[in-house]
Write a structure and sequence with these properties.
The protein is of the alpha+beta class and 266 residues long. The protein has 2 domains: 158 residues, no CATH class; 79 residues. It is built from 6 helices and 11 strands. The protein has an 8-stranded antiparallel barrel. The chain has a 3-stranded mixed sheet with strand order 1-3-2. Strand 8 and strand 9 form a beta hairpin. It is globular and about 60 Å long. It starts with a helix and ends with a strand.
């Protein structure tokens, strides 16, 4: 039995390596297609890296790089039975470059991730993907509860849907969908080195939206008494003190002030 398991593992490893050239070519082609539909000249280095969990965008030696795990991309294409899943993943990483997020790769900004998801949905519509095809990869790989770097699956699916619907309205010559402030907004949350603005409503939901996006819920804030609050999103916990300063603990357990809370005023 042990020998059979070893043989199976070797065959599986060989199959993954055999897929790598084809998967790499497909990834490079997908990046060119996405960039072409953005009206830009492709100037990204696209390369496989088995040490990357999924895909990542970064800048090195002034070159814009996108690395991806070939086995992950192959799994997505196989599970979704099309290449649209891989295209959506790479479109998200391209958006990180186009929106300037790779300038500060260590930052954790949920609004940035949702903006890239909206871009993914927008560009996939232009490339001919259905809404179901545009959502397929996130439906398969998104984390239901979110992680430290990425919002929960439901928020990311909503962002992709918004981008896809916005592109549809542009194609059909329809005016932009009117965006209104959600009812019941109570607080504004702002964070150091994060250009996004977040809101908390009367239901305790933490929301993100911008000038062209409908509100997307991705976290929660609850009253802990005495003028203090607990905020949670993306597997992170924050404390708002009575002075409305937002704190979190560093990896060494030290409290760090990372933002501020203000009452919402239209």
């Amino acid at each position: 039995m042990r020998g059979q398991l070893i043989l199976f593992s070797l065959l599986l490893l060989g199959a993954v390596h055999a897929q790598e050239p084809a998967t790499t070519q497909q990834a490079e082609d997908a990046v060119r297609r996405v960039v072409r539909h953005s009206g830009l000249v492709p100037n990204f280095i696209v390369r496989p890296n088995a040490d990357v969990r999924t895909a990542i965008a970064f800048v090195k030696d002034r070159q814009r790089v996108i690395e991806f795990n070939p086995a992950f991309i192959a799994l997505v294409m196989d599970s979704t039975r099309s290449d649209w899943g891989a295209v959506s993943i790479l479109a998200h990483e391209i958006a990180h470059h186009l929106l300037g997020h790779t300038i500060d790769p260590a930052a954790v900004r949920p609004g940035d991730e949702l903006a890239c998801d909206r871009y993914s949905g927008f560009v996939l519509f232009g490339m001919g993907a259905t809404l179901t095809e545009s959502l397929a990869a996130m439906s398969l790989t998104g984390d239901p509860h979110g992680t430290r770097r990425h919002p929960p699956k439901h928020a990311r699916l909503e962002a992709i849907r918004q981008g896809w619907e916005e592109a549809r309205r542009v194609r059909e010559g329809l005016p932009p969908e009117p965006v209104h402030d959600p009812d019941g907004l109570r607080y504004v949350l702002s964070f150091v080195d994060d250009a996004n603005t977040y809101y908390a409503d009367s239901l305790g939901r933490v929301l993100w939206f911008d000038a062209s996006a409908q509100a997307i819920e991705f976290g929660e804030m609850r009253d802990t008494g005495g003028g203090t609050f607990a905020v949670r999103w993306m597997d992170e916990d924050y404390l708002v003190d009575a002075r409305m300063a937002i704190w979190r603990r560093s990896t060494h357990g030290m409290p760090l002030q990372v933002g501020k809370l203000e009452k919402f005023a239209r």
